[in-house]
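Support request, please re-run this one:
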Amino acid sequence: MGITYQELSDFPGAVFPCSCGKQHSIDIDRIVIESGAVNRVAELIKPYRAEKIFLIADNNTYEIAGQTVEEQLRGENYAVVTHIFDGKGQLVPDEKALADLVLDIPADTGLVIAVGSGTINDLSRYMAFKLNIPYVIVATAPSMDGFVSTVSPLIVNDLKVTYNAAGPRAVIADLDILCEAPEAMIYAGLGDVLGKYTSLCDWQLSRIINDEFYCSEIVSLMKNAVEKCTSDIDGLKERKPSAVKSLMEGLVLSGIAMSFAENSRPASGAEHHLAHFWEMTFLFAGKEAILHGTKVGITTVAILKLYELVKHLQPNREKALRFVSNFDNAAFEEQLKSVYHTAAPDILKTNAKEDRTSPVLHQKRLGVILEHWDEIRATIDELLPNAAFAEDILKKLGAPYRPVQVGVGRETVLNSLLYAKELRTRYTVLQMLWDLGELSNCAEQVTEYMTANEMENLCTDPAIIREKLADVKCFILDMDGTFYLSDRLLDGSIGFINTVKEKGKEYHFYTNNSSKNAALYEEKLRNMGCPSHVGKVLISNEVMIEYLKKNTSFRRFFVLGTEYLKEDFIKAGFLLDDQNPDAIIVGFDTTLSYDRLTAACNLIKNGTPAYGVNTDYVCPLDQGGFLPDCGSISQLIYAATGVELEFFGKPSRHTLDYILEKTGYQEKEIAFVGDRLYTDIAISSGSDSLSILVLSGETTPEMLLNACEKPDLVCPGLAALTPLL
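Re-run finished. Output below.
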């Protein structure tokens, strides 16, 4: 039989003569996707006879599997050097990350073992290729299709470039670990799979128009894999081993298909161009990237909608020729400089070399397009579902399906449709629409479709919210901007806490506002009409005091704060001392005087330890405007002294640990509800707790679009959240 009906285990070491005229094979020894596979690593690497091993992981993947692999290898007397990427935020596959690896790897290393998925894999295989040593990937999540790839997409000079790299000698994926992968990685894996619909159609387009190499058996292989992955979305959502295994196998098969084709054509088309463009936009803005496959899922919806428009086009030769003859290359280059920033020179250089806008080459392509228009439309009908199909799959899984849900705005969507085709020397539907003089018009229509009702799409599907809320046992409610605004209760606040109690769940209030104390807030809530079962008020003051008691011998403090903050320190048994303190405490000081500020700065400059209670920059006022908060005061101190304070309120881990201790719940049983991204939402980052953004306070839809912090759920306010309990 041909490659279409082979089992995954049949591919390593086999050679398949194909009707396309090639003999397909993949240079890999074994693919192991099974329960308990992580415990077989030492056994599976024996054929490589490596005495010294370089193990690469990050903080998360080392905890999930890397430590197990390391201990197993040391138990078998392997010499292991481990490199753990230990930075804050996401790991970026750039020059610095590669340099860190090269500086750390011993010269006599015989084998690289990568523990992780996307970025870890890309960096490891490129380094293994450059040093000409084998590598093995221990996969920790079914999040992308590059596990057996022989290329690495890296970011060099702010431009995402694909480099030749080494394929792994073995892929080892423990099904138990894959089933526990974060849901975002499951979303990403399925998104990457959905992208095969449009990439395969783009490949067929280029075969028709440019006579590009094309293999129908590879296409059939990928179609079968995609259908298998999308056949049990409920099972995938429930983390059933059979569904997760199908997804992982589909992703590995995608990499095999790329190896057979000797390029990424079977797995990457216009949908990937858009996703890479969005990624670069985030990079230029200093924003943390969204998982690649998550973006691909959304951009696949966009390209499917674009193909729907193509089917209804009536190509016009005169219009297309007129468009190209009037095309302003100079203006186009200026646009590329504007959207690609520091990466523009490389883009322009590639364009000049290929002469993409050449009237002569355009006329040749246009003639073929017009001659084969019926075949092109038939290809679309044969290979593609409609946009709603992919959209519904993503919705059913609970994955993002609109740009706004991952912080991508209208301008970026439109620019990606117009200019992302310049990123790769690859013919796709985007270039075909340019050839027809229809790209601008179609891009506007798709942008309108993808960005319509942005506010509605910011608010997560009610069914998804209900499911996520089912495991929550305790809600931690922000106060100002969430439950009330200044001295006015927000609509639905009382109804929400009553419903929480009726459902047998708990709630606590938590505020970062260190200008008051918990007793004052409890009184304020009662005066506003809260019922007698008002939850305990937790406050950033208490988090700091608890930490100082347990972790320092400090007893004398210079408190730059209000009388309420000072009172909390005195009640805790501490002494106030502005002359010879053990440490400086900086709070939201609405009584701040220049003399006390100067005295505190001088002490800090001379080496006295200093701590900040909360990071908030402003405190909003009901009548409009704001007050500068503790974060702003701390910035002033930093500018004067060069000392950055350690903070204890949201979003610090100190606060999360304090809440877990006080409530007795696990992370996954806690939901933080608030209106401020960089405190209320950011506190959940890197934990299993849930973050729920309410749009009743500081955060606007526009702010959410451009934010690095992304909530798990979004809703207009507590009133909208209540029925979903």
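The chain is about 50% helix and 15% strand. The mean pLDDT is 91.
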